[in-house]
Design goal:
InterPro entries: DUF4446. Keywords: Membrane, Transmembrane, Transmembrane helix. It holds the Pfam family DUF4446. The chain is α+β, with helices and mostly antiparallel strands. The protein has one domain. It contains two helices and five strands. A five-stranded antiparallel β-sheet has the order 1-2-3-4-5, with helices on both faces. Strand 4 and strand 5 form a beta hairpin. The longest helix is centred in the first third of the chain and has 26 residues.
Length: 117
């Protein structure tokens, strides 16, 4: 039974990475020349933060993928990995803050790192 859980966790992780790849490919455009205004919704800044939300278990297997446009709006995809489960959350971001949703300190840190890139 633990082998099935491991395989499901690996499959979920790979599916999430593929989904993130598709999002980046669809919305990322080549760098424009200086002074050119980009359309709304174009992903300009991407960052990945790995962390350990469960201090008593494992290492930095959880991560936050932050995708933002020029107005610091976009999405955060958070994966919390535990020995027995993996949870995946997607949260909207507007102007560098959670859009009607509470963000964890790690998510806030990921947004700041993305904005400052």
């Amino acid at each position: 039974m633990p082998t099935i859980l491991i395989l499901l966790t690996v499959f979920n992780f790979l599916a999430l990475l593929y989904l993130a790849y598709l999002i980046i490919i669809k919305y990322r455009h080549p760098s424009p020349s200086p002074g050119t205004k980009l359309p709304l919704g174009v992903i300009e800044k991407v960052s990945l933060l790995r962390f350990n939300p469960f201090k008593d278990l494992g290492s930095d297997q959880s991560f936050i993928l932050c995708l933002l446009d020029h107005s610091h709006s976009g999405v955060i995809i958070t994966s919390l990995h535990h020995r027995n489960f993996t949870r995946i959350y997607a949260k909207p971001i507007k102007s560098g803050e959670g859009d009607k949703i509470t963000l964890s300190k790690e998510e806030k840190s990921a947004i700041l790192n993305t904005i400052n890139r």
